[in-house]
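Ops channel
N.P.: pipeline sanity check, posting one input/output pair.
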């Protein structure tokens, strides 16, 4: 692991001016200085994403060898970056034979449901066909994806197929990352981003076609989009709507969209042999590792795809594989391990698409991101653990948790199918055939029925949709969840008593965050600390990847971290201190290494912060910093997060004030040892216990002061009464009369 923070760092780049040289094998690699790195436009034409990839990995101190990357890039481009070869490849896709028929169907019908196996070419080809057929003369073409990674990698692929620079004619838009320009015609975007665009362009008039892709995933945003674009199609006759899906039960989509015709693209499918375990596996991670190694050692060439539930598991399996491979000696072939999950930094994601060198085998360790939305070539073996991480929501308590849940039969079939795309495949299910038949549900419950709806309700209100109960949902959400969302938005001041959007609500909707964070930012105007609050919000958004805690240096890392907690300021302010200290060193990477802070996360936080600052301008909130008045900052946080308050109990656990849940401070919190009496938390995570993450101490009377409509005196009574009254006795004797005459404590507090 080399130190890459110095300026003189060299990176590999090509000597030649044109990419043709690569094909003829003339290209040589050399190492250039940073200045030389300013590559000509002709490079960017095909190489820009890879150049970024190299730059980032060199700058960010990853454990990459420049030479390795360079070599694999040359390999890749020798094989792939030839436009003509790419055009030939396009013609080989199953969808190509149906091009004209498909275009005719789109011409003849306003709404079309398109079904085809993963890998048949729907996502990459249909927008290009539409462009070739002239649809882009009337407006842009949007193609929505449930996942950021998919939007990004597909846009990169399509820009190469069209021979244009990514961000020009073909671009992508994901939260906090807009890679489009005036000239963008094909826009790959997350479904959530299109939803946001609807807020400023309710009729999507700049689009001629919207393709809601991966519709079978039924994400919350996709489900809401359905209702909205269906409506747009009714009053914009020349607007085309395509709903595309990888699974065959498309009738439901057709029914919903007023019996829209279904266009089926027959797939190329090879047989897949399915193996179940004979007995249930006690430890599916271990079983996955053993199976992967068995395949590697005994089976003919072909890459392996392992489905796990999340980043942590993926990292564990990566470690285990590396460890055991090293124990097997040098006789066995090389095994290249490629992790892939939604939060994996963009430049590392590219690794899964780099072709496997001859003689080696690749094992892709993925979340269910690889189930349908990413096509990874050359997969012959699938290992299916049978689980995924799924969000579930309890409308009674308003808590959301990510739980490891068995997948559905539909998912299991999709996973198995990933091995039979380029030839006969094998799928190893780490569960019994009996479990498959008896325990797995047929289909996954759509997200809208198991999530917090506050953000969606806010967006719909902004679009003027007030009657939520009668919104045209494909599958309606539980009424309890809708009411809970309205209740929260009312408490936050985003809706008035009649359920109408307020000015605060409108400002909140401008911010691309969840309603509680948005409210904290909007409220920071009052406390003159908006500058501090957007830094905190950005850091919270980046989440748990800020601090780096390498196994062998835990003590050092913890020491570095405790510096930011000096004065027991709480986790929120500690995050602010981290950000500000980094800023003071002029965003130095060296500073990050020394303080065990992840450079990449910090850069992301800075990007997000910058965008939030831009938004503040739009909602006319001035940037003001009040970093010395910690109470002001805390009050501003409480203005958004007051529903997340908890009180210490005698046994060291906490109880949430509103819902009376038993919770604990997460061990990673700076407050974990201190156990303050009253706290506010950012989020609850359920692991072995219900843990609160990002915790800050508060004074209970603040709750009544800031959210008098939500908390009454009795909620915070036990300590507040005695202490507050004592304080009042002491310092505010003349006003004490008020306390006895005015029953509302809030009034007293605000008066004082
Ligand atoms: O959408 P669908 O699953 O039908 O297929 P697609 O995503 O359009 O993929 C068609 C082909 O494009 C795949 O078989 C891959 O070979 C290629 N592709 C790629 O190389 N890199 C990507 N990021 C996406 C697709
Ligand atoms: Mg697709």
């Amino acid at each position: 692991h080399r130190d890459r923070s110095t300026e003189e760092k060299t990176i590999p780049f090509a000597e030649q001016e044109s990419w043709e040289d690569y094909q003829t094998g003339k290209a040589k690699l050399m190492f250039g200085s940073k200045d030389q790195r300013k590559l000509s436009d002709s490079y960017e034409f095909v190489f820009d994403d890879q150049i970024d990839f190299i730059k980032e990995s060199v700058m960010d101190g990853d454990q990459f060898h420049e030479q390795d990357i360079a070599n694999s890039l040359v390999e890749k481009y020798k094989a792939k970056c030839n436009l003509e070869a790419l055009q030939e490849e396009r013609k080989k896709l199953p969808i190509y034979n149906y091009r004209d028929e498909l275009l005719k169907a789109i011409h003849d019908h306003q709404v079309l449901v398109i079904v085809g196996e993963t890998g048949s070419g729907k996502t990459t080809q249909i927008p290009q066909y539409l462009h070739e057929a002239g649809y882009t003369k009337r407006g842009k073409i949007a193609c929505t994806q449930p996942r950021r990674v998919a939007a990004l990698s597909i846009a990169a692929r399509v820009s190469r197929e069209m021979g244009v620079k990514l961000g020009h004619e073909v671009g992508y838009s994901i939260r906090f990352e807009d890679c489009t320009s005036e000239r963008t015609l094909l826009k790959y975007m997350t479904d959530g981003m299109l939803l946001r665009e609807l807020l400023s362009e309710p009729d999507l008039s700049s689009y001629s076609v919207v393709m809601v892709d991966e519709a079978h995933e039924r994400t919350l945003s996709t489900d809401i989009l359905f209702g909205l674009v269906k409506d747009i199609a009714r009053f914009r006759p020349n607007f085309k709507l395509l709903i595309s899906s990888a699974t065959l039960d498309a009738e439901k989509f057709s029914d919903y969209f007023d019996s829209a015709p279904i266009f089926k693209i027959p797939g190329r499918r090879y047989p897949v042999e399915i193996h179940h375990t004979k007995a249930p596996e006690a430890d599916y991670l271990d079983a996955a590792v053993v199976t992967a190694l068995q395949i590697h050692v005994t089976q003919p060439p072909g890459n392996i795809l392992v489905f796990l539930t999340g980043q942590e598991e993926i990292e564990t399996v990566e470690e285990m594989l590396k460890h055991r491979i090293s124990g097997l000696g040098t006789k066995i072939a090389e095994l290249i391990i490629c992790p892939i999950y939604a939060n994996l930094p963009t430049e590392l994601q590219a690794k899964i698409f780099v072709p496997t060198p001859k003689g080696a085998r690749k094992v892709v360790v993925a979340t269910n991101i690889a189930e349908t939305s990413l096509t990874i070539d050359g997969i012959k073996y699938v290992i299916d653990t049978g689980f995924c991480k799924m969000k579930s929501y309890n409308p009674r308590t308003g808590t959301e948790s990510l739980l490891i849940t068995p997948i559905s039969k539909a998912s299991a079939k999709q996973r198995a199918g990933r091995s039979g795309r380029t030839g006969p495949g094998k799928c190893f299910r780490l569960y019994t055939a009996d479990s498959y038949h008896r325990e797995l549900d047929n289909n996954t419950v759509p997200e809208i029925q198991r999530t917090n709806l506050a953000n969606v309700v806010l967006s719909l209100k902004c679009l003027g949709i007030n009657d939520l109960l009668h919104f045209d949902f494909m599958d309606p959400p539980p009424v309890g969840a809708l009411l809970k969302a309205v209740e929260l938005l009312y408490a936050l001041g985003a809706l008035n008593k009649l359920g109408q959007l307020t000015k605060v609500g409108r400002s909140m909707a401008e911010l691309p965050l969840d309603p509680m964070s948005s409210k904290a930012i909007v409220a920071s105007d009052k406390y003159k600390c908006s500058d501090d609050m957007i830094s905190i919000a950005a850091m919270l958004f980046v989440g748990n990847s800020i601090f780096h805690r390498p196994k062998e240096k835990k003590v050092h890392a913890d020491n570095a971290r405790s510096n930011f907690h000096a004065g027991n300021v709480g986790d929120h302010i500690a995050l602010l201190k981290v950000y500000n200290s980094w800023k003071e060193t002029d965003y130095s990477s060296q500073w990050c290494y020394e303080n065990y802070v992840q450079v990449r996360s910090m850069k992301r936080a800075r990007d997000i912060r910058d965008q939030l600052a831009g938004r503040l301008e739009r909602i006319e909130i001035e940037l003001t910093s009040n970093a010395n008045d910690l109470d002001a900052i805390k009050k501003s946080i409480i203005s958004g997060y007051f529903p997340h308050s908890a009180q210490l109990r005698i046994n060291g656990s906490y109880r949430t004030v509103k819902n009376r849940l038993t919770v604990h401070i997460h061990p990673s919190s700076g407050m974990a040892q201190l156990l303050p009496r009253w706290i506010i938390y950012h989020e609850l995570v359920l692991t072995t216990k219900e843990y609160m993450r990002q915790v800050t101490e508060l004074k209970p009377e603040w709750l009544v002061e800031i959210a008098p409509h939500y908390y009454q005196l009795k909620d915070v009574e036990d300590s507040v009464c005695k202490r507050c009254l004592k304080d009042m006795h002491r310092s505010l004797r003349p006003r004490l009369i008020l306390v006895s005459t005015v029953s509302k404590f809030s009034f007293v507090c605000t008066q004082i």
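N.P.: looks fine end to end. The pocket of magnesium ion (ligand 2) is lined by residues 122-123, 213 (CB under 6 Å).
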